[in-house]
Amino acid sequence: MEHPDVFLAHISEDGLRAQSVKEHLQGTADLAAEFAAPFGGREQGRQSGMLHDIGKFSHEFQKRLHGGPKVDHATAGAVEAFFHLRQFETAFVIAGHHGGLPDGGAQTDAAGAGTLFGRLKKTDLPDAAAWRKEVQIPAAVHPRQIPIDNLSESFYIRMLYSCLVDADYLDTETFMAGSAAPRGNYEPPALLLEKLQQYIAPWWDAKTELNRKRCDILRTCLQTGGSCRAGLYTLTVPTGGGKTVSSLAFALAHAAARGKKRIIYVIPYTSIIDQTADVFRKILGDENVIEHHAGVDYSVPEGDVDPALYRKALATENWDAPVIVTTAVQFFESLYGNRSSRCRKLHNIADSVVIFDEAQTLPVSYLRPCVAAIGQLVQYYGVTAVLCTATQPALQPLFAELAPALTMQEICPGTQALYDFFRRTTLRNAGELTEAELAARLNGLPQTLCVVNRRATAQRLYAMLEPEGRYCLTTLLCPADRKRLLKEIRSRLLQGLPCRVVSTSLIEAGVDVDFPSAWREEAGLDSILQTGGRCNREGKRPVAESIVTIFRLEGQRTPAMIRPNVDSARHVLDTFPDPAQPEAIESYFSFYRAVKGDASLDQHQILDAFRTGFEGRMFPFATVAETFHLIDTATVTVYLPVDEGAALVERLRAGDVSRSLYRQLGQYAVNIYPEHLKKLLAAGAAEPADTDSYILTDLSLYDRQTGLSLNVETGKGIFQ
User: What does pTM read for this prediction?
Assistant: First the structure.
């Protein structure tokens, strides 16, 4: 399709339709302005949209549309923004709208370097001066409410970047499809609040004291949510107090009263995200709840025109649904990310209610950057944030330092007095035990849970348990098998059948199981109490008979990673008669941070990198994105061709590298350390899938009850 007098941005796949550059710029600018309006960036969003593709006004790019060589069409807009309009932020987001936000670099950078300054010095850009005849660039200023310090600037640039890339994607998507994608038109928070109220209506006629207390907490959350101002809140509810539904009630009431756009529920682990999302879907309807994490897939099969499924697939890209359930990894790594795929959704966090479930699990080595990010969102982007946990960490000093304008408020201040009422367990210390002694004690109990610190320990103990009703839960099992085993465990517990489970800490936070007793290898106090939350969860047994036993294993050193946690827990257990009391928990976190030192709270100096630069290079977006990984372990993904995973692996071998496939494969993956991968490769038990992942070829090494084994000689090997 030839258009000699019109500069084109896109040509449809069938070659029958074309979109001019001017049309694309205007469409993108309108959307970017709309997206940036909630945080005061409307005109800068419009400006970035109008400038982002002016490089397409070149004859070289027009040839590219018909199969010519690649052309740099992004730098031209960045040059115009920086040198002529003096718009630093606009230049940054335009320069990165395809390849990701670059490091700012330094003015001494050579022309063509990958930094912003290197890009701005390029001298071989195609002539795109024709844009001046067709496009008028609006003026823009920095939003008044956002301080011009480097940290705040970095967040603002990332938010503006999000607006641009989402607008660019959506405008292009609409043109290529020939019509607007089925986005939006979700039920508003006020209507979702009505659904919640209908769902919980039968609860108000509570027959037991336990349920009356739960209703008190729920009622307080509804009332406070509807009356409080936007800001920073805590919700400290004892285990068994109905935290999940109560926090949702607060969020919906608050969103309806204060005009918030959506609720974002941030969960620490993928292992518990499914059950939370299921609860929300049951209350609010499937169509209003989106899960966004590696283990969920909303792909649209070829030929499938189901608009509901298509809308869900698109919503995972930019979080425009009313309720998002995601992981802490996805949330915070996006806030410190630089790629469009990560950052596209960020602008939709503005004017939202964000619930951080199990806030005590935020990694200590990234605690300062996480707190700083929450502070930025609340102060400048209209976010109401709720730190929600049964064991509230002492975060007040960090917020006082990093976001001093904010006041942290408790939603249910009276719940501290309820800890005695909601007590479900009695804590005991068994001292040192051999693995054989521990296994003998577990075998003496028909139903019990034992949580240990190492995957290897879990597998060894499993082998010592009575065969009937024994289970082993570790990350050496793929998610699909963990879900299957948890379903069996819940069923056996309900039926009163033998059920002895050895697990690593993955079962601790939020997994809905109820054992009559529990055992916990020495760990942090928060871990011990979380294990306790899986014992007598429903309060149907006497507290004195619901024993949570702490132990240490003979001949095993505490893993270095958790040694400060263990030392801090010992301090609290020696000091407080009741370690579950809020005062004891606060003492634990304070002592722990004193042991670790302030430097440990930002181990990779993320905040300093933006405040003062990194090795003299300002705004190191790309460098920080490479560094910021909440799960800070160098592991490698191995895919397992079992059940549905077999067909998925074959698609991978055939060259399918779609995001959809990788999400599905996530259900059939385990992560191992590089040294263990070497053993598998040396034995011919694994093969490369791509540059970052592998496929297990010797299925004898995977047991669907215990997980991946790494002793390739016997098939029984285990590792830590």
Answer: 0.83
